[in-house]
TrEMBL record:
GO terms for biological process: proteolysis. The lineage of its organism: unclassified sequences, metagenomes, ecological metagenomes. It holds the Pfam family Peptidase_M17. This is Unannotated protein. InterPro entries: Leucine_aapep/pepB (IPR011356), Macro_dom-like (IPR043472), Peptidase_M17_C (IPR000819), Peptidase_M17_N (IPR008283). One of its GO terms (molecular function) is manganese ion binding. GO terms for cellular component: cytoplasm. It comes from freshwater metagenome.
Amino acid sequence: MSWKLKAAKVQLAPALAANSIALGFIKNPDLTFSFVGPTQLIAEIQNHFEVELVDELTFFNPTGKAGELFEIPVSAVDSKTDRIFLVGLGDSLTPAMRIAATSIARKVKGKNTTVYSACAITDRDVKAHAIALTLGAYLWNLKTGDPAGVPTFLVATNNKENINVAISTAKAITRARDLVHTPSNIKTPAWMATKAQEFAQGTGLKVKVLAGKDLVEFGGLCAVGNSSPKPGPRFIQISYAPAKEKKVNNALPHVVLVGKGITFDTGGINLKRPYDLMIPMKSDMSGAAAILATLTALEELQPNVRVTALMMCAENAISGTAQRPSDVIKHYGGTTVEVADTDAEGRLVLADGLAYADKNLDPDYLVDIATLTGAATVGLGKQYAAMYTRDEKLAREFESAGITSGDRVWHMPLVDDYKDGLVSEVADFNHISRKIKYSAGSVMAALFLEHFAGNRRWVHLDIAGPARSETDSGENPKGGTGFGVRLLTEWITNL
Ligand code: BES
Ligand code: MN
Ligand code: ZN
């Protein structure tokens, strides 16, 4: 873990024990400055270090935008503190609390140092700020030599429980990121199964892994995954149920999450080109990583629901055993599908997972999450996931969980008029639209998947955009973002 996070009392003593103190300011309409955090504590800090922080700000004359940061050197005989970070809080709403946190975090990323942050007041802001501190400090690499230092964030609050929730969530996001960052020569489908077992060890989570002959009915997963010589595809099922109240478990709502776990996507015989498009494809298992990580958070938070995660793991390789365009495969449950483009592999593995869940798991809610289409990114960019559902109530729930958690989603239409694009002459369906191949690609994928979700309350999340960041900025490192963990954790804990 590249960070530590703890709750600290809103008092002078813990602040003075830290190497630096972070305070948040806003620029008022009359161009004066004020602080947003705990008033009395901020006054005590100023007295202790004999500084006038508003004077300092007046001198720097910042714009006040969120994340702007000034470093004030301070010293006092009885304190370890040698810096006060003054950080802009913009409009001081929750998203600004996150941005401010990432500025602070980037200052201390990779350093063995302690920061006491007193920027946020409400529980909601404290939680968002605390999680964002860890996200901004995230580091991952396989460099040998001296390991990087680990900053400790002390978040000022008298609600320790709220920080415990933030810690569980932040740990899960970090885990998801680590999985995504791991390169694909290490990250085989079998490795993903080992990780699931490792995370579940010593907890109440149960893991079941299917491989080889046990996957015969999973025609989509096998067609994609058998392109890779070894190890082959894996179906990884992780289940969560609350430790207490075991008796009423069967009456609890059951959520089934299905995640795309393509450990590398070459495109297969429809090879990705130009090859720059292939480089980021180690992150094509971000959906599977998000649901696995979410379950580890839920295990700590113990919400009163049952959750089953199905990680559909396979490598989409190019080889002598790779599927061919024009192949017809039989999905779990028997539906036949004509494969027109081996690079549209994600929906093939998800279809098996959805059909399996519908047939065997009796889900009250069925949610799939996948880096499915470049088209979703064309439409929405990298800050919103494309969400598909016919259930308006669920759509509202996900939208609101997205805004609260920071993992935002946009409700997209399942356009019935486009369904004839999936008609095949030789199978039940074509998995892509050949008529309008380059139009509504994300919608077409959703319409294909819908068939396999039966009559369940179903949500499809296309996270091709937000799962990965091309730059080290804001909450995200360059690479895997862990998108979906906060969203799913927020939605599930509110059910
Ligand atoms: N994994 C890709 C989608 C993707 C693209 C994710 C860019 C993240 C960034 C997916 O398997 C894919 O190749 N989709 C094709 C579908 C097409 C062949 C119908 C796409 O989006 O081009
Ligand atoms: Mn692909
Ligand atoms: Zn893919």
